[in-house]
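Amylo-alpha-1,6-glucosidase structure dump, as promised
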Amino acid sequence: MHEALICVALPALAISSQHGQLTGHGLDGFYRSGRRLLARCRVKVAGAEPVPVQGRMLGAERARFVGTVRTPADAGPDPAVTVERVRDAEGIERITVRSAAVHELRLVVEVSLGTDLAELGAIAAGRAGPEVPAAVHGSGLRWSTPGLHAVVTADPPPGDALASAGLLCWEIQLPPGGSRTVELRVRPEFPGRPRTPEPAVHGRGGAAPPWGDAEADGDDARAAALLAAGLDDLRALLVRDPGHPADAHLAAGIPWRCGHLAPAEALWAARMTLPLGVRLAAGTLRTLARTQQTGPGPDRGRMPGALRHTGAHLPPGCTGVEATLLFPVVLAEARRWGLPAQETQALLPAAERCLDWLRTAAGDGAYLADPVPGGPYRCEVQAHAHRAALLGADLLESYDRPGAAELREWAAELRRRFREGFWTDDPGGGRPVAARTPDGRRIPHLGSAAAHLLDTGLLGGGEYAPGLLDRVQTEQLARLLGSPALDSGWGLRSLGSKEPGHNPFGHRSGAVRVHETAVAVAGLVAAGYEKEASGLLRGALDAAEVFGYRLPEMYAGEQRTAGSAPLPHPAACRPAAVAAAGAVHLLATLAGVRPDVPAGTVALRPPRTAPLGELRFTGLRVAEQPFAVRISRLGLGMVEEAAEGLQLGA
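structure tokens r here:
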């Protein structure tokens, strides 16, 4: 899949190989809401398939393919006929045939169509069925199964249509320098239901995305390209709650994880894009609040979430726990960025239920266990719980709700015990352990999950909450994150290269995960370790350039060498919400914006080393008003645009 060109405008997508022909094999095809409407779309001109010249993305939702065709009229080795195909995720394909011949050409254009109407999941598992028989329908063809028709219409209508072969044919005349275009449109129809267009939320056809037009420019042109590509992918991944169309959230990734809400990934992406505005966070929080368990019992307040494989050393973890601990954090930080008090108060009961679940799940102990029976106390879960307790306490106190003091006391006890129980000494200066078992055994392997220990969360006055580690331990962790064992040169490995079980392609045992690299960079900058942060940042930016700035959710964690390039991971989603949002987070870290809208202030604390030189951001949003900032080559920040009445803090 890493070589596929994937056009996305959810709930529609189109998956193509770089040559542009949809062959019916693999995942090729046009999809709508998880069903493949068209699997085969092969073009022939003058009896031959075009020779591929180039296939590339024009945006998150469109791709362009160019090929050449040899004809008897060619006077030498140079082809006179080119075929351009522009494919749109929404189910539109424009086929343009151009002639550079000196004489008029009469050519036959054939388009061979077919589909199996299979579910995306079945196709991915290799269980797609045979092709469904076609029937002539209007100016095209139709395929039918119980409850669903897939219809392809052509403009202009074909001169001939052969349903048994799924073939549409045109005879065209091309004068010297002339061109002809055929447009195909693929759409679903549902027997017994009126035909209504499905709403889209991406920027071209549907409602505007819940953020403004943010842009970056500066000494390093890659920053602008990365931000533009990240926003393009985020726009393509937007989906709405069908029962509450005002609330948008992000699908986890294409093609494997776009069918169901992924609470943890949706919250991470919403949190990382807060510099773009709070509307996405608000929609995501409202959507998830409706899924929260509210009945009696020990799971009251917990968010749903599937188990996630966490590598060879630990049993699967629960994404529902991660989402539950993220919910009050995202709400608290969205409030600092400018979520109105009325909306914050409306979401406060759901956040309180999350915090109640935390208190219940922790019980009398200081550590929070994974809910898998007999599961371990994970390092990153303690970090998530500590951050939720402190930011949750801040949120409760701001609205005169009870429980803040209890949460702060629990967090203080967790800090005290964590600094001893989750740290192991060694000749290299020590390091945090990945997890502890209920019987006290330490699981010492080191990976990118440790970066969450530096992600403490934003409190009032532009200050960050205290971390789980002390000053000496934080310094040692920063050194480890910047070491060759964890820094691959392209980003942060999920498991150190010297650890048992390291696998460069292991998604939790060695691969580079973009959003954890972004977490590490932001945490290192906040803690004052800019050298290590700059190394990870530049590596991720170099990798983004290789991937055409559409970052996959992960890629192989092989060590960077002279002349090498990051290796794609064959199972990675691309685009992916946490990768696109991680790109925004990486760049926003360089702006150093720390807002406290309830207090009417915003602080700027960019990295003093200015790792990408001079950098300017426009179209950010603080207090839901445009915010622009310029960072000089000396690492000095200057606000160029801000909401009226917002005071610049230290």
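The two ends are 47 Å apart (CA to CA).
lmk if u need the other ones
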